[in-house]
Amino acid sequence: MAFYAVARGFEAGVYGTWAECERQVKGYSKARFKKFSTRQEALDFIQQFGPDSNSVSSGKSISIATKRKFSTNETTTSSKKPSTSNMVMDSSSLRKMNERKDIPVVYTDGACSNNGRGGALAGFGVFWGDNHEDNVSKPITGKATNNRAEYSAVICALKQALSRGHTELIICTDSKLLINSVTKWIKGWQRNGWKTAKGEPVLNQDLLEEMNELLSRIKVEFQHVAGHAGIYGNEMADKLAREGAQQYSGS
């Protein structure tokens, strides 16, 4: 069996076929990928050459979801779990989080099939832990896009944390795009009347403003994790998001 490691591409991760791998690297500037005979070698390659898995901390921060493709014939039963035999945890991230057991940790993710095309389906997942009562798998409302699914997952997790009286939260995500949006770019967009540097309207302003308001009420630390790399919490949030997307009924 072959394992295709994509260290730098549209979505870093380990893929089982060349077709899946090609979709992530074709047209991506300075893509880095390689074929291996074992999954562990592929994961090691991603760890060595992929984006850093690091923590971004801020007194006012936010979390995200991810862009995932899924098959419409997958089960929609939330109680079922994916196989964990090949899942790994990022040791440095876990060590850092385990030292702070008083702060809750949540994984968020979003999924959208046929993103940007007709027939798109989008949903989000929020994973607090195995059999946790606050785990969420839902379709999004409005237009089905990856980013709206990601933002919806974050908003849901933040509302849950606030309703339980949490003052701090660690959100684990594999999307650096949203982290940058809410920790680096949002203030500039606000000053510029919600226009980009090119003068174009910022997409999804409604959700960004809602997240920004929620973030003013809780201290959030981002933990960036590699996507498609078998990290348990990330994989579970992804499964919930894909199940939620299958329930999407349109805007």
From TrEMBL:
Belongs to the RNase H family. It comes from Acrobeloides nanus. Its EC number is 3.1.26.4. Its cofactor is Mg(2+). It comes from the Eukaryota. Residues 72-86 have a biased composition (Low complexity). This is Ribonuclease H1. Gene3D superfamilies: Ribonuclease H-like superfamily/Ribonuclease H, Ribonuclease H1, N-terminal domain. PROSITE patterns: RNASE_H_1. Keywords: Endonuclease, Hydrolase, Magnesium, Metal-binding, Nuclease. Residues 100-246 form the RNase H type-1 domain. Endonuclease that specifically degrades the RNA of RNA-DNA hybrids. It catalyses: Endonucleolytic cleavage to 5'-phosphomonoester.
